[in-house]
Amino acid sequence: MGKRDNRVAYMNPIAMARSRGPIQSSGPTIQDYLNRPRPTWEEQLGKKKKGSKALAEFEEKMNENWKKELEKHREKLLSGSESSSKKRQRKKKKRRNLKKKAASSSPDSP
């Protein structure tokens, strides 16, 4: 008695898929996606310039607040610099007076 042939023929899955033909897809294809209408460069730039009104208002308000804060700070520094120079002069006078008093009250002075 001869042996039974139990070999199975190898089937190439890619070749089998091609023999069935193209598959029916339910959604858009890659070609549809690539061929879609797109806005031009000028239209894109126009959209960026517009922006949102709320954001523009917020930025405007923040700029105004920042300007006011800078003005206050400048005034404070300018007025503070004048008074600080006067304070320095007063301190110098006090030091001179203290040195004179200390020198006149010391026992080694003639």
UniProtKB/TrEMBL annotation:
Disordered: annotated span: 19-54, 70-110
Cross-referenced InterPro entries: Fam133
Protein name as annotated: Family with sequence similarity 133 member B
Family: Belongs to the FAM133 family.
Biased composition (Basic residues): 86-102
